[in-house]
Amino acid sequence: MQMEITPTVSQLTLSDRWVHFQARVGINRVMHRVQPGLYTLGNPVPNSPVFVTANYQLSFNALRSSLASVDAWILVLDTHGINVWCAAGKGTFGTDELVKRIEMTGLKDIVRTRVLILPQLGATGVAAHEVKKRTGFKVEYGPVRAEDLGDYLQNRNCTPKMRKVRSSLRDRLVLIPVDIVNYFLPTLLAAIILYFLGSWFSVLAAITSVLAAVVLFPILLPWLPFRDFSVKGYLLGLLVMLPLVYYSFSGSEGALWSRILHVLPLLLGYPVVTAFIALNFTGSSTFTSRTGVKKEIYAYIPAMGWMFGISVVVTLGLFIWKVLGA
Amino acid sequence: MFNSYLETTLRYDTELCINCDMCSLVCPHAVFTRGEKVAVLANPRACMECGACMVNCPVMAIYVDAGVGCASAMIQAALRGKKMEECSCGGDDCCG
């Protein structure tokens, strides 16, 4: 049975850009899907190249918009709306799905070429030699980024640079909006609780520690000292708390022990919030291994728990002290 | 100090290697590079355990305990009482 072939274009429309914006701020994520199957770009002939991608709209759009004035076939795999790399890690952008999609679309009878061009990051899920054995198609891994496809197509070769996944400032910046959206509600909730327990000062500290993690951390990542994300995050959290520590310590006139208790959460609890969110950024980075992240979790989560717990107890204690004293 | 990323589960048996170049092609961190007779494990510390080399090695000369180094997925898995390795990554709620 042959499924229908859908035409597409390399030009992105305003509504495509709107979808990209939505995806970047985390709206309607699960809706950003393309119908899996075979597409034509321009006017491909049976010998035109075949490109394979995921059915996440941003992946599909990145591919077709990089193929301006190229006549090609695009085979879209069903990855449940997940991008190529993550889907490959999960196996949905994988050998079985590729073989199945080749059969379902009747690709063999439509094209004469026996080469499929896959994004390099799809290699985590696709065994090229197995695809060859099961379908006769040779898998060729193109560059990591679709934008390099123009250069790649010149001589079907990648420079070492095109083979490397990068993590540039721009790549990290685009991740910030979605995290602001994700952390907004929990931060708001914490701010409300802190307002009643403490003061505007605690609210300021909480918002500062979250913003440091969500906005400053991705920007400063390569320049923060040490390799572990938790340590980088804690140091950054501590740094942004310093003005508040100074203000709190020098501004109050209470006894020394009371002043120390007031700054304790600023040195422990709030920077730990930054550290924890920073640790969670490992999943958004392009270079952390599971072995390393697991080590980080075992090494730092208990300490984070203690530091956070002590800060909660101190904050509550000071609140009760204030209520009783009044 | 404070570096949890010095060791990985990557293992490579040069005896089995047929120098097909696949590992150096698929590695996104240039951990493997082309060699004259066999592939060269040039930068093992850069390995992020994605598993692309292992999956595409036709003679199984490479082993890595492949997985995604994502703390939030691993912590969530641990909280749900699952093993950290069985993360739910790639579901609708993550990895857009």
Q: How many structurally independent domains of chain A?
A: 2
- Nearest-integer average pLDDT of chain B: 88
Predict the CATH topology of the largest domain in chain A. Rossmann fold
- Gap between N and C termini of chain A: 81 Å
What is the overall shape of chain B? elongated
Mind telling me the C-alpha Rg of chain B? 15 Å
State the low-pLDDT regions of chain A, or none.
none
**What is the radius of gyration of chain A computed over CA atoms, rounded to a whole number of angstroms?**
26 Å
Quantity of strands of chain B, as a count: 4
Description:
The complex is a heterodimer of chains A (326) and B (96). Chain A has 15 helices and 6 strands. By secondary structure, chain A is of the alpha/beta class. In chain A, strand 5, helix 6 and strand 6 form a beta-alpha-beta unit. In chain A, helix 11 runs parallel beside helix 14. The radius of gyration of chain A is 26 Å and the shape is elongated. The mean pLDDT of chain A is 93. Chain B has a two-stranded antiparallel sheet. By secondary structure, chain B is an alpha+beta fold. The termini of chain B are far apart. Chain B contains 3 helices and 4 strands; from the N terminus they run E-H-E-E-H-E-H. The mean pLDDT of chain B is 88. In chain B, a hairpin with a 6-residue loop joins strand 2 and strand 3. At the A-B interface, helix 3 and helix 15 of A face helix 1, helix 2 and helix 3 of B.
List the helices and strands and how they pair.
The complex is a heterodimer of chains A (326) and B (96).
Chain A: E1 5-8, H1 14-25, E2 37-41, E3 50-54, H2 57-65, E4 72-77, H3 84-90, H4 95-105, H5 107-110, E5 115-118, H6 128-135, E6 138-141, H7 149-155, H8 160-163, H9 169-173, H10 176-197, H11 200-220, H12 229-251, H13 256-267, H14 269-280, H15 290-325
Helix pairs in contact in A: 4-6, 10-11, 11-12, 11-14, 12-13, 12-14, 13-15, 14-15
Chain B: E1 11-12, H1 22-26, E2 32-33, E3 40-41, H2 52-56, E4 62-63, H3 71-79
Antiparallel strand pairs in B: 1-4, 2-3
